[in-house]
Amino acid sequence: MALRQTPLTLLARALHNTPVAASDAVRRWRSDPARLRLLLEARLPQPLRRVSRPRVDSAGPGAAPEDASSIRRRVEELAAREQTVAAGAQLLRLTPDDPYLALLQARVLRAAGSLTEARDRAHDAARAKGRPARAARHLRDTLSNELELLTPGPLPTTGAPSYTSVVGTPGRILHVVTNSLPLTRAGYTIRTQELVAAQRALGLDAQVVTRLGYPVTVGHLTAGAFDRVGTVPYHRLLPLTPLPAHPVAALRAHATALEGFVRSTRPALLHAATNHLNGRVAHEVARRTGLAFAYEVRGFLEDSWLARHGDQPGAPATDNYLRTREVETWVMHQADLVTTLGDAMRVEIIDRGVNPDRVVVVPNGVDSRFLDSDDDGSVVRARLGIRPDEFTVGLISTFFDHEGIPTLIEAVSLLARDGLPMRLLLVGDGPQRESLERQIASSGVASTALLPGWVPFDEIPSWYAALDVFCVPRIRSRVTELVSPLKPIEAMAMRRPLLASDVGGLREVIEPSGGGLLVAPDDPEAWANALREAHSDEGARRRWGDSGHAWVARHRTWTAVAEIDRAAYERLGAT
């Protein structure tokens, strides 16, 4: 049981966690102050955040002259947001003798994925004197460690680690993840919760451990060493000592802490989920303890990065992209079992040389609260002021670039101009929120669009039910061609008809289920036509909804998904 959260308990936790919080803040500040500012800003309630992102257009030709400090600040913020093309353009406005020029060039190169070149530029900047040189030395050291971290191979160790075998407890599975509910909510954390809960319902003693320092490192100073969400136990690795300043040393500390936890709990298998940092730590501990190691590929980290840098020339040739791909692939090769979300992802993993016999598809699923829901969405619609006769389309998502939400906004705007207004409901939040709000304001749909932010987890079915059509307007990119998201499965379970971009990760869900219509990605006119068709044909919407629901009920319950994992664990002798 978790400790009762009395004021004294919370104070004790805060004191315990202060070294971790302080060391993490110092490390982030030295590495990239602008990124830390953005991180802190993102944790504020939406009304308290800055109204807009850096205004690059205000600094274009003909604009009033600016002092160098304002330009430097803009470069730092653009680099921190990974808007590297705009950041590079701003760099050209600084004079060649600006004392911060080399440091800022290194920051932009880092954001652009050119880590080796960024390290070398930071090294040049560190030869000078004064404040820029001190910051450059910190950046150079950080980049050197990041490059070492992206070198495939066993985790670098210091001293002589123990290689004493652990006798695992049959059926005890330890999931090694980045973050979790109840403190972080995303598709990643929901999958962990639902998959582990289903495994436990099947009789496995499945447990979860999060990365070293989490959730203190994301602002929860009074976090304890244990949480339970429903039936799922979550363990936290929260040391009394500060976290190491450099990434490789921090990963070694993570492995040491995880090893101690593993030796005390004696799982039969370590099941690490994306990304390679979790995988390398779990692999190292498996080596030291003789336990089986599974790696769950929930996405391809390098392709997610590439999707955010689509306008950047040469992004696929950067060492960040290539080396991340290489180290992720190395972890896959070390695993006794590789699980992943869909057929396209499995093919990609096999194409990287992983033995097909060790690669198993364990897709996303849903639970009974979606499949058995009879919620008609009327309570949510009334709360939002949506009339029963108003046709409402939208999505529930984290607002990332690859989700393609601007395409949906433009499609709704086109229909409004053609005399077919509809309500647009965008539930969620994320890096694109401010730009989406600006697009809505300028496209003529501000009076019909709603962005309520994140909603309580228990209310999610009601928000699906409030939509007449659930939309997944993802852009065409490597990540969307490969990765199948969770939200369309939940929407189909709620009998919501789907309109989804015709990309691989969605095609492998829509085609077998008959749950909706595939639409050309990145094409607002095609999306407007699809929305018009869905609006005019209530019978088609009903057929799509019923077909999708039946398919999910047969193939995509979390119980069925967890059975796949259990069978794979059994083949490894872990049950």
TrEMBL record:
Residues 187-365 form the Glycosyltransferase subfamily 4-like N-terminal domain. It holds the Pfam family Glyco_trans_4_4. Coiled coil: none annotated. GO terms for molecular function: hexosyltransferase activity. SUPFAM superfamilies: UDP-Glycosyltransferase/glycogen phosphorylase. This is Unannotated protein. It comes from freshwater metagenome.
